[in-house]
Amino acid sequence: MQASKIKRTILVTGGAGFIGSYLVDSLVKQHNAIHIFDNLSSGKLQNIKHHLHRPNVTFIKGDLLSYNDIQQLKAYQFTHVYHLAANPEVRVSSINPETHFQQNIVATYNLLEYLRKNQDSPKIIFTSTSTVYGDASKIPTPENYAPLKPISIYGASKLACEALISAYAHTYGFKAIILRLANIVGPRSSHGVIHDFIQKLRKNPNELEILGDGTQTKSYLYISDCIDAILLATEKSKKQVEIYNVGSEDQIDVKTMAQIIIEEMGLRNVKFRFTGGVNGGRGWEGDVKNMLLDISKLKTLEWKPKYNSQQE
To answer: Is 109 a catalytic residue?
Structure first.
């Protein structure tokens, strides 16, 4: 690909992960120069191997917690930075909060410091999470809901990252887009309730353990809808810092989801075993029992999900 045809020079942290690799798929089609930065702790080369032969795609194995690894980026000037690198396991935070502090907050700070010192104010696009709202009293929950009181270390770490990005944007002249994602599902996903259910049923097709009481109700968004939202927000956002909810317009409870997965796998007579959960039937400490995002702001950009939670 000739340099004259390159539209943008883009960094994607966590680009070998679930969402990151699909984002890379779309960015490549737009004739961008893509630099994927990933430590492969949860991401997989398998997710991006079909791009590694391309002259406009560069893979850099690196960790945002390593100063020397980050210095590998000095050879490039980025127009856009999609920051997806993070530890995605919400449950981990109740057992080992240090994980999310380091891999989410410190990693984001290190990236921002690198950009401040070495880059010419690229646009930063950050994937945050619906868990920053905690147990919201308003459902669907809009972006201006307050106060934000996350109930998991994961949610708190993402909210801290949002605050850092906002501060750096206003202080050092960056533009930033923060995307608060619902539960994103689809092929290549390696965590989350759907992945967990499938793995459990493959091991034991006669019984399914369900964390909590099964009434946890949340919204799920298919990966293609998520990527469309990210790209549209990138193109249309003009403010210094813009925040968007990204999710579907409906909800589904965990028990119903389990029933759908069992049906799709062609299984019958599967016995459910509920763990009972904690704090009123949650699957784990920090599990938000009821989540549905108000996506009306994103819909003003002419985006609408093609799939609902039950179609995922």
So the answer is: no
